[in-house]
Amino acid sequence: MPSTFHVHDPAGYDQLMGRWSKILARQFIDFAGLADGEKIIDVGCGTGSLTFALAEAANVDDIVAIDYSPVFVEAAARRNTDPRIKIRQADACALPFANGRFDRAMALLVLHFVPDAAKAVAEMRRVVRPGGVVAAAVWDHLGGMPGMRMMVDTVAALSEGGRQLRGRYCFQPMMQPGEMKQTFIEQGLVDVVDTQLVVRMDYRNFDDYWAPIAAGEGPLGHYVATLGIEEQARIDAAVRDAYEAGRPDGPRSFANVALACRGLVP
Question: What integer pLDDT is reported at residue 6 of this predicted model?
Fold first, then answer.
């Protein structure tokens, strides 16, 4: 089942989100747990933020990283020098692995881009052994990403298309309070716990913030790419004004919240 995340250039994705997911990965691993000798599956690996953090965090035996996007798979494989890590293309809703193959299944910033997120959770549960852990985290687009909401709200103020974009962006799967925990319970996981993880996104200047969006990366960039040149220029100017907030262009920092959940396979 395809993802709703749009990626063109791995470097653009890393500027947009990958650099922050690398920071978030460390907190997510602390929450999800990890132990030497384990076999892990990273569901929706992207360019490898969680994958390579897992390899550094413990002396695990085996890490299988999958992503639906061949662009991401190629980029992550190109970076990989660790024989414990295997990277391949696969669908989160139809994982090509036997029941109970792994000790942990982890999905970092993925489930909100999977149209049938509950099916992906069910598949993660299926491929984890009894007693193993399923864990996931998603950004809180509605209330926990002020830097991105600033952009989305600005676009929404300019057109009906922007308003529709905001509605889609703020209410993706697994983002409402308790939604992911309830899904984990419904898919048969036990001892389910949820929490919030907080990181800061620090930008050097407006171009550091806006360039990957202007280049078409991610759902916001995909929307901007569908617009004409004049409308793109109008949005660029309005978002710049929101970013600068009446001060000269330069560094800005935004706190960002991810919603995380973990459960045990009975």
Answer: 54
